[in-house]
Amino acid sequence: MGAVSGVTSVYKKEGGGGAWGVGVVALAQQRKLSIYGPSKLPVCVSCHRLIAPWEKAVVFPCPNCGEPIWRCAKCRKMGVSYKCPHCGFEGP
User: Fold this and answer.
1) In this protein, which residues make up the domain named Small zinc finger protein HVO-2753-like zinc-binding pocket (predicted)?
2) Angle between helices 20-31 and 3-14 (to 10 degrees)
3) Could you read off the pLDDT of 60-69 as tens digits, one per residue?
4) Which helix (H) or strand (E) holds 69?
5) The pLDDT of residue 89
């Protein structure tokens, strides 16, 4: 069995509706894994969309202030410009 089937079984046992994060967090606690909770997911600075843990994304420090900048794969592929949320530095 893969990791996806484990998440699905915990989801069915504990979650309902749109509370998928409850099952994922419960599974991580059971297996002693460290993952992002539902409210701690990173956000793409270009499109302001939540980045799921399994998604291909990149994080790098801002050249000016050093704060982490998260970008999703779609925005990077399309060449969407980004802006640091802390200091306002704009990149290509």
Assistant:
1) 44-88
2) 120
3) 999 999 999 9
4) strand 68-72
5) 92
* Cβ–Cβ < 8 Å for 51, 41: yes
> Domain spans of the chain?
1-39, 41-92
CA distance 83 to 92: 9
Contact 85/52 with Cβ under 8 angstroms?
Answer: no
Tracing tokens 């909770």 back to the chain, one arrives at 37
Q: Enumerate the β-bridge partners of residue 60.
A: 69
State both tokens at 76. 């990077």
81 close to 46: Cβ distance less than 8 angstroms:
yes
Between CA 67 and CA 33 the distance in angstroms is 25
> What is the predicted pLDDT for the residue at 30?
56
The structure's pTM equals 0.56
Q: Residue 42 is which amino acid?
A: P
